[in-house]
Structure formats: C-alpha cells, structure tokens
Amino acid sequence: MTVLVSCTVKKESAPVKTPETTNDSNGAVVLNSKQSQTIQIELGKMELRDLSSKITANGYLDVPPQNKAAINTMITGYVQKLNFLVGDMVQKGDVMAELASMEYVDLQQQYLELMARIVYLEEDYERQKRLRAKDAVSQKTFLSAKVAFRAAETSIKGMSTKLKMLGANMAALQAGTLEELLHLKAPISGSVTKASIVLGQHTDPSETIYEDVNTDHLHLELQVYEKDIGKEKKGQKVWVTIPSIGSEQFRGEVFLVGKYLTAEKRSIGVHVHVPDDIGSC
Fold first, then answer.
1. What is the DSSP string of 42-80?
2. What is the pLDDT of residues 33-79, one digit of tens each?
3. CA 146 to CA 255: how far, in whole Å?
4. What pLDDT score was predicted for residue 49?
5. Buried b (16+ CB within 10 A) or exposed e, 201-217
6. What is the pLDDT of residues 233-277, one digit of tens each?
7. Are 212 and 71 in contact (CB under 8 A)?
8. What is the pLDDT of residue 198?
9. How many Å apart are CA 275 and CA 280, to the nearest integer?
10. Which whole-number Å values give the CA distances from 195 to 100, 188, 191, in the listed order?
11. CB–CB of 257/221 below 8 Å?
12. Which of 4, 119, 150, 159 is most buried by a 10 A CB count?
C-alpha cells in the first residue's frame, strides 16, 4: 500500500510595520492624515438620502368573482318585461326581467298531473303489498306496482327541484295555481353593467340578459415586471393613484403575490387590497 502525504512548510514572513494609532482621553481612535490616506478614508458632509427602493407598476381595479353575476334563463322563453337599465342599482332578489315560456308552463302542468297520479300509485302499491302478504297476488304484480310508485316519486322530486331552481312559487303551484311568467331575479346586490336584450326577443340559457357587479370589495390587480420580482411581499404597503378620479393617493396593502411569470409580458400579478370606499370616489 502506498500512502501519499502532502506537506507544506510555513515560512516566517517579515513583520509589516503599520502606522501607530493613538487614543484620546475618551478611548476613541484618532488617525492622523497619513493613516487616513493609507486606509483610504474619505470625509463628506451629512445629507439626507432615501435608502428605500421604489417600484412603479400599472394595474386595474377589479372585484372578486363572487361579486359579479350574469343573469340568464335556464329555459327558453320570450322577454315580456325588463325592469332595469344600465347603471341602476339592484338588490338581491329583485325581479330583473319576466319571460313568457311554454316550457315553464308545461313543466308546471306535468308536475301537477304527476302529483295527482302518485296518489293512485301509492294506494295501489299499498294494496298490492297487503295482497302479496296473503299470497293473493303474484310477486310480479306486486313489484310492478312498487316500481311504478317509486318511479313517480323520483320524477316528482326531479320536477320539484327544477321548478325551485326556476324560482317557482311551490306553495301556489301545489294549490293548483300555474304561473304564466318566469321571473328572473338578481342573485347579488350591485349595479347593472350590461343589458343585452330587448322586449319580445327569444332567449335561451346561452344568452346573458343582464350583468350585475357589486363594487363593495374592490381590489387592485398589478403587473410587476421581471426586473422587480422578489421585491414584493404580503403585507407590504403601497400607494395607489387612479387617474380617472384625480391625483389623490390611496393606501393599499399587498395581499397576494403571484408565483408564475407570464410569457408575454414577463411579469407577475400582485393582488392589492384597497379601501372599500375607493369605488365611491
């Protein structure tokens, strides 16, 4: 076995003479001009300087997704009445439009017919069950009555769910009163930002009749470019200026910093919370 060992010999270096320093009576180090020149000390006047960095970014005001709503119908119909214009304020539950829909009327009619029929089907099922217990009817006859009753129950539940989704007055319907018009109600409170239909127009589920926006919780979506990435953090304070309402500055706070860099703009999104009353300015 061969072992290689590397050794170094420490050479004594000649001592370096440095200019001696003196201490004053308070223990402070005092340097003469030669010493200051040796270590390159430069003296300057005291001045105020901004040691913080500033980031400038553009963005836009937006609202959370739950503060936006599109009002449309779930079934086909013809617009009979429009109750609001763009810019109007609406409250949740307000009737925004009324539609005449044969599909809606047919669904109510089928529901009432099935409600009447299920009474007979239930009685027949109970009778067949008693007879089967006495072995007076075949198993096939009993099962047929049972299946018919259970199927009718399921159909009624399905129709009831559909009618409730359409906003039907179920108490009035069960009392035998059919509604001629379908009422489209505002799902949130806010202001109308879009009205895209006219009286008499045929509409279906793919068409938006109104758009409603609630601006109670505005926030700012900023785009911060690649060179400034890493300088933002949650809780950081920002100053916001909105040109459309003047030069006044509003104070905001960084709530969320994006993690992904966009390929087109080479920027990340920064979500900033702003005062709730900024939208009323």
1. ----------S-----EEEEE--GGGEEEE--SS-EEEE
2. 777 677 777 777 777 665 566 788 888 888 889 999 999 999 999 99
3. 59
4. 64
5. eebeeeebbbbbbbbee
6. 888 888 888 777 777 888 888 888 888 877 777 888 888 888 866
7. yes
8. 92
9. 10
10. 18, 16, 11
11. no
12. 159
| pLDDT of 212 strictly over 90 | yes
Which amino acid, 258?
G
**How many Å separate Cα 254 from the centre of its chain?**
17
108: which 2 tokens? 């109510």
Q: Which residue has the tokens 């402070």?
A: 28
- What is the token pair recorded at 129? 């069950």
Structure tokens at 87: 């810019």
Phi, psi of 93 (to 5 degrees): 100, -10
* Strand residue runs (E) in the chain: 22-23, 29-30, 58-62, 68-71, 77-82, 89-90, 95-100, 181-185, 190-195, 202-203, 210-213, 219-225, 237-241, 249-257, 267-273
Task: Supply 71's token pair.
Answer: 């009002």
Residue reference for tokens 């989704």: 165
Q: Which two tokens stand for residue 137?
A: 């009817």
What's at 17, amino acid-wise?
Answer: K
For the four alpha carbons of 253, 258, 259 and 263, in that order, the dihedral sign comes to: negative
Query: The sheet that has 267-273: what strands, in order across it?
Result: 58-62, 219-225, 267-273, 249-257, 237-241
Structure tokens at 249: 């500055």
Least-confidence region, from 47-61, 97-111, 129-143, 160-174: 47-61
